[in-house]
Amino acid sequence: MGVIAAFLLNGLPQITDELMDMYTRLVGRWFNKADKRRWETFQNHGRSINQKLHDFIVLGRTLIEARGKKLDLGRAVEAAVGWEALAASVDETEKLAAPLDFSNLDQLTSQYSQARQYTPRLLSMLEFKASPRRQSLLRAIETLRTMNRAGQKEVPKDAPREFVPRRWRPYVFQEDKIDRAYYELCVLSELSWGLRSGEVWVPGSRRYLAFDEYLLSREAWKTARPAEDVKSCSQYLEERRQQLHQGLQKVSQLLAENHLLDVALEDGKLTITPLQADVPEEVDLWSDRLYNLLPRIHLTDLFMEVDSWTGFSKCFTHLYTEGPASDCTLVLAVILSDATNIGLKKMADATPGCSYRRLSWVADWYIREENYAKALAEIVRKQHQVPLAAAGDREPLRRRMARLFRSPPGGQYWPTPMPNTVAIRSSCFTATSRIGTRPSTPKSSVRRSAMPPSCWTAFWSMGLISGSRSTTQTRVV
Predict the structure, then answer these.
(1) What are the sequence ranges of the domains in the chain?
(2) What integer pLDDT is reported at residue 102 of this predicted model?
(3) Is residue 444 within a helix (H) or strand (E), and if so which, with residue range?
(4) What's 366-409 look like in SS3?
(5) What burial class does residue 27 get, using C-beta atoms within 10 Å of its C-beta: 0-12 exposed, 13-18 middle, 19+ buried?
(6) Who is most buried in 296, 321, 445, 474, counting CB within 10 A?
(7) pLDDT given at position 470
């Protein structure tokens, strides 16, 4: 029981972090769906909106001409449009008109029923704390908890209002009452923004803590080091200034005596001899000849062919059913967007019959770090079965693999920690396969990659990526 209790206590912060991550993603999805619905409504009413614009042009020109000729404006409107037709047109235009700021908040209530399925339990189970600026949001969360426990439908008139942003106020506050749906959605939206900005934190989590909790307390700092070893900022800078001065004096003396290797001072100019190549010149010639022997195929074709050899796409299983994806093309497209850093949006644009919504769904349910580790282990296992791998020295290969992976008992390969940022230059996709058949504009971007670094090495060994892990730019071939 003690082991089970220790395991649960250790896993609770991670579960809390994953719960908050899922919550913030769901709130973002509400706004994406509302935005999509707003644009669909706008497109469906496009013909009627265009007709109203033409009616406005006719009415405007009629009034301008009547005013210029000093005619009666009422008779001019009656002759050109007709007052009854004008009144009907105004009523129809009011129904078609979107908010003046073209906000998607008018479509957000369509997500309220879905939010009510889990947000009451979320607010009741977790404790939130916030900075002084967000205290009104905490009071609003407590108001929602009280309403949920009592089954109350109407928001009290004395409910907190300070946290409501300006663009939400026309929807939340209606005459002498507060709209329940918009008030609750506003609370949940501001809670998501507060968690992301760090103004709201969750006690017991690791990722959503107050900033001060990431630092050592004053008592812990005093006990961590002896008091005489603690230096002030001025003392530290003075010591570094002296070290820099001594180092510059030593370099100046060696430079005057011409004792610095490959460095010389001539006519007041510092000359540094360039480094020579560590490999023979013949290597470039033979590497070019060897590269020319390789077939000229597209990246997408090579990616699908490697999957046909190894079957690594079957390792990307569903989060709940643990079954492989019915269409491995979608999985390969998401992996390729990770490898090239072009993102799901551009990958969807470059792949016919594949929408951003489908790729996003596959990325949420199938693409995980542990699945990358399983796929990488399968690729390495297939590499060991290649006859060329058995022809060389196995000991250097094992040493290289030991640096790339940590192998716990059981023989599973686990990736090393992810890098913070990876810079990728993506190429145009013009292959005849289903992935990326429409060309996309090459563009450099820097973002956090979801792919473990050991996977980059595996893709490099398969020829999917060229360059060096030590460089900041990796080129996709």
Answers:
(1) 2-211, 232-272, 296-476
(2) 65
(3) strand 444-447
(4) CCCHHHHHHHHHHHHHHHHCCHHHHHCCHHHHHHHHHHHEECCC
(5) buried
(6) 474
(7) 38
